[in-house]
Amino acid sequence: MTKTQSLRMTIDITMTILSIILMGGNYLFPADIVHEILGVALFVLWGVHITLNRRWYSALFRGKYNPYRVMQTVINCCILISTIFLMISGIILSHHLFTFLNIQGGLGFARIAHLLASHWYYLFMSLHIGMHVGMIANKIKQKRNNGAKEHGQSQPTAKKIILRILLALACLYGLYAFIARGVWKYLILQQQFFFFDLERGYILFALDYISIIILFATLSHLIAKLLKK
Question: Of 166, 174, 185, nearest to 213 (Cα)?
Fold first, then answer.
């Protein structure tokens, strides 16, 4: 793995962790300014992420589009649109870092836009992760297969079965969390105020949202495999 690839992976992991923290609103850090600082940090990382992947963006209008490339482009562009709405609504709602802009009005729109954009961002981010996990998994699989052939060893079938069962269970729980947490309601504005169950606490909240990432990342990975075929 090159230094650039390692940097990309580190940034992607950091962005995912920040996204999970920010999805909890101000419940983990009651002070609004912490949420704003973490939000700005996420947008800065997005700037770095786009810079590192500038070749992909510059090639958007070049070459042929197969189904896989269409899926990848739609997901990435939807993430970018969600990010822009998050940034604009976050600035309008700011009580600390961006008060110097002295923005008047638009708070009602900004609150709804921030809630809507944050959950669509989370969904497309999960799909985006699934496509990249597939690439990384293929590289790891190829190295293991080459290593096994060199040593005359067969791949451990039992280990594969156990991992797939665990993945299936995580996806099932992710589906439960997606429904029980009401994430689908935020996506279509059936619920216009964010609800945090204080009795369950933040650890269970984080586990729920991690399982949702696993669910949609797995779906994205499987769909991508079908499209490549």
Answer: 174
